[in-house]
Batch of 3 targets.
Target 1
Amino acid sequence: MEPMLAAADNDPGSLAAAAASFPLLVYDHGEQPDNSQTVLSVADGSLRTYQLPELQNFRCLETPQGLVLMVDTASLHCSLWNPLTGEKMPLPAMDEPPPASCRCLVSDTISSPPDWIPDGEAPPDSLVVICDFTRPELLLCRIRGGATAKWVRQPYDYMGLCEIPGKAPTARTIVEIAAVQGIFYFLKSRGVVGALVCFADDPEPHLELVTFEAPKPMIATDAPQVVTLSYLLESSGELFLVCLFFLGCGLEQIEEVGAYVMDFGQRQWCRVTDIGDRAFILGPGQFAASCPAAEHGLKEGCVYYAYDFLRNSNEFHIFDLKEGTREVARPTQDIPSLSRRPFWLVPIHPGV
């Protein structure tokens, strides 16, 4: 890592003062009027205003592992930023800007070798992976690739087509994806899970596909139509699926929230109502992360969900999986207009 100079706790360009309050919900106001961000701690409800240089002249992609990929909008130089410490790890420059709509993940297999790697065998490279939502393509980069590292594009054609009556078919893309022990799992279809693996002896990063059948959970209802939003995430080395179920075609009212852990022996999603001292954090772009609850002042066994479909409020929802209860929370003061949807900064994942 290349550390930045330590910033004072009251420095408006540092998140040091809010380090104990992670996870944070960030409201970015863009260039007007002062390149500022309003930051909400969901643990204690406190609000702070910052002018973070990392969010000025950079495209920033948050990851479930806590690191943020920064891409200089002018030079396309890249780095991984640790918001808690200010440290940055340089990465190769991109040859074009990142996709307008995408998801970013980090898989650290060096400091936390996967269980499936035999003793004495080198683990696959730690990777940064960007899933392009606009076309079926992945962008890959080795974190510790040295002078030879570069961003590699990997198109794919295994997601099929999205067909809407009256419109030309378009290629489906990977949307729900999580990194678990060096493997990138995604929902290939309603009943199929895909797994992407990078092997250590590949001359440059390349993800190989394996699939297995695992029916996607449903809810019992007489409603003629159920819409499901799905989120994949890693927690304590396990693969979880969180489903938000909506009745009808609207997305205003969540009918039910379900959490499921993958039983790889049975190849099925098993519903769980007790996730222990953990909280799941969900946001726009299918962002999903796990966070120790007590350590960070969160309600254990809950799902924190921040996504305003209508963009007319800054609310977030808290669903208690064990009790089946829910509540809606919001900032205690008005939030100025935003340049993007609110996004999460979560604690750094162990091993990253």
Target 2
Amino acid sequence: MGNEIESEPSSVPYGILENGATFADLESGDRAASSQRGTENNSYHHGEDCSVIIAAAAAMEQVETDETRFATKRSPTEEEDDEQQRQQQQNLAKRNQPQSVRMLSKRLVLVNLLANFLMFAIAGFITYHCFNKATVLFSWHPTFMAVGYLVLMSHAVLTLSGANLLTYQRHHKTRVLVHWLLQAVAGVLITIAFVCIVLNKIRMGKAHFQTTHGLFGLITVVLTLVSIGGGVFTKYGYQLRSVVRPIYSKIMHGVAGTVTYILGSVTIGLGIYSRWFEEDNGEQVRLALLIGLIAVTLYVIINPIAATISRTKTALRTTL
């Protein structure tokens, strides 16, 4: 038709695009793009796999941490066993220390010597007073009580607390053995003294435990026997740990022993101010004996009280 415009034939050969690229180039580009998309897809899936692996590893690590935390959570008895092992190692280390390190200070040596002098002086004076005029059944009561509490029991407590000048360098097991022996002999003498006063009251036809001194004496003797029994339980506390924790038995024995020793000193002090003792001794003599008795008592009980407080804190820390 006249008004139709005929298109001019393209001067570009068939198979070649206007920008000079061929269909082969397009196919190659498509293959490259497809390969790139595949690589990206693989990378994406690989990233997902890595994320899953990392998350699983973190979960396993958390489980292992929880298991380790559960495994390392120890019972109070196990912690106490470890504490005893550390104490034994410390005692062994102290035993292997040089002699100069384990020497007591001069002040402590002087205080120890003074305490020993007061113990033997008071017990000796009471014994002298008992046998000064005559030897009767009653004479053995104050003598054995004074020796049992003031000398033997005092040294037993000082030996175990490491404040005894004669035994502080010894191994802990040796000091425990000495403590046992001294307490056993003291218990025998105190029992004999108690039997003597009971028999003397019967012989004289007098009533028993009618004075403050007599009542305190009865309570003290009963607590002494209880404390000695508690000492036996404490010695085998590790074997009896299924019944009560060893640290609890030590605390109870420490409290009972300290209270018993204080009551023993109070009973002796009441005996010093009894009518029997006032007959031949003036006020100054009795006051001097009382001051010496108080000084000895304070020196003996200070370490057991500190040890009991420390054990109580440890028991509360491992229990709560």
Target 3
Amino acid sequence: MSIHLPEEVINSILLKLPVISLLKLRCVCKKWLKLFSDPNFIEMHHKHTIERNIWSLMLLVETSEFSTQKNRLYSVEFRTPSPSSSSLTTYYEDVGIDLPRCSIPNYEWVGVMESCDGLIYLRYEAGHVCLFNPFTREFKEIQLPVLVADDYDFSIYGFGYDSKINDFKIVDISVTCEERGEALGPNSWTSIEKVLPVHDDDMDGEGVFVNGALHWLTTSCILAFDIEDETFQELPQRVFGTERGICVLGGCLCISSRKDNVSFEVWVMNEYGIGESWSKFFAISSPTFEKWTYFKPIHSFENGLILLRVGDSLVSYYPKHRTARTLEFQGIPAWANLTTLFGNLVSLNSGTYMRSQEQTEDGAEYINGIPF
């Protein structure tokens, strides 16, 4: 006796599955293949993924100089710790993804790897950038304008989602104070001459995206660029110290700074744009910090556990008990960069997909780059 479930029940179950499972289920029937490409389903599934806090840490590994592929991605998944737990359980694997080489001859390195809404933003040498969905393996190569690529002394840049046009934008700001952004729909650069309200030569190039805007830390304020309206704003910052950095934890802007040789502090802006809402999130001290200049919070868990990058190491820190543990991933080579990622079925509408060497040699058939 066969059992037929109502369509709404089936869809509700499918919405709760991880992206990688949905990609495999595309092969079940044409109806599901069409469903998983529907923008409404993709948006609802991504919201479920974020609400259930299902995310991965993507590690960028530089392979051997003798390898035909210069970079490779590894995926590390974290099980959300229980409220009483002060440790992390990790599951990691070689996801078998070589980064897109695009049309760059003999490229040497990926200088930047950031993420937004399931897409990874890769900034190569020689004025090339690339958007990449590591789950569907679709990528889109973008050439920076000549001015940005070849004629600048200093630039800041970022990648974010414009909810007004329901699309992504890349922003590159050069020392000539011209903003350049590309929305993936129109596939064209728009140039708008604007005077930067403030800028420092030592500003970090990579902007962090939250609340619909990209943010960079300056000496006197946080410089924000609204993705939708394409306008600048100066946000107050009350955090001082050396070796400062900006990040996002729990959907809030945060600033980290070195307090002394062996201590770092992290402050959080609890209400966006309100200077009086700054408060100390946590502080951490260790004798090993004296030799490390790179300190960046990566992710905060609901039970208070914090994932940190300290130098070349990943550290889990529990402020309540002031306990820290260095995380090790056996079998994964030394990594050069990392980003957090919520899986997404979103398409770049490029029609170009990555296939690993193993896949192309075994003669498998594909649906959008996924073997079945």
